[in-house]
Amino acid sequence: xxxxxxxxxxxxxxxxxxxxxxxxxxxxxxxxxxxxxxxxxxxxxxxxxxxxxxxxxxxxxxxxxxxxxxxxxxxxxxxxxxxxxxxxxxxxxxxxxxxxxxxxxxxxxxxxxxxxxxxxxxxxxxxxxxxxxxxxxxxxxxxxxxxxxxxxxxxxxxxxxxxxxxxxxxxxxxxxxxxxxxxxxxxxxxxxxxxxxxxxxxxxxxxxxxxxxxxxxxxxxxxxxxxxxxxxxxxxxxxxxxxxxxxxxxxxxxxxxxxxxxxxxxxxxxxxxxxxxxxxxxxxxxxxxxxxxxxxxxxxxxxxxxxxxxxxx
Length: 313
Known about the structure:
By secondary structure, the chain is an all-alpha fold. Helices cover 63% and strands 1% of the residues. It contains 16 helices and two strands. The chain has a two-stranded antiparallel sheet. Helix 1 packs across helix 10 and helix 9 crosses helix 10. The longest helix is centred in the N-terminal third of the chain and has 27 residues.
């Protein structure tokens, strides 16, 4: 077991969380209001970079975008370093193709800790490496924006994950260095990582299986609320091509869909793929667990989100 541990990653993740705890400690002191606002804004940009960019656009191609969208979403992904777009998408496509097997990079059958964080700390299972070679990545290899980011991933991530959130508060409203570093940069980064990881863990282990009760991914309302719509996970694994990643549209819990719709409204996004309601209902009846009916977000969901915002800021 010890030989499978990537000690470099253990050190980095441990240091990241220790530094984040100091960032939380600094929250109890006087922090400029603009810093709090900027922190929330940048955290949302990072989150959307993962959900709209890495996940729904680059991994699943659930909608089409022009070159400006390519560049915009690429830069947004760089605000929360989670490997290159190419590597992230390859692992995610592998996750869908071989879900809950040894070839799944974050196999939830190996337990909560592994699928949430442990997979980052351990060497990949041999099946992940072997099956990963069979994943079709030709579309991303042909995308110059993705290949540019792949080549300069470390530099771009360093600039947009660390330098920008560090320098902006210090330069524009004279925020203290320690606050900008530990609160606005490191704590924000760790928070977005856990937001992403929660989809691999909570949304695979806890919730209802409305559309396919034979698979592990579940409908997890809390994850949907804090991860901008990524917690409707039983639906997503049943219909992975739907750009909403959920049955619901125009819903508060799925802010990623709002962003994509906004880009479509200004002509930057086209061909948003969806699933017909008739097909959804038939799938529910045939393979679902009959435990949940689609409803729009409630006051409770808004309260959960606002509480989450209050806690993290």
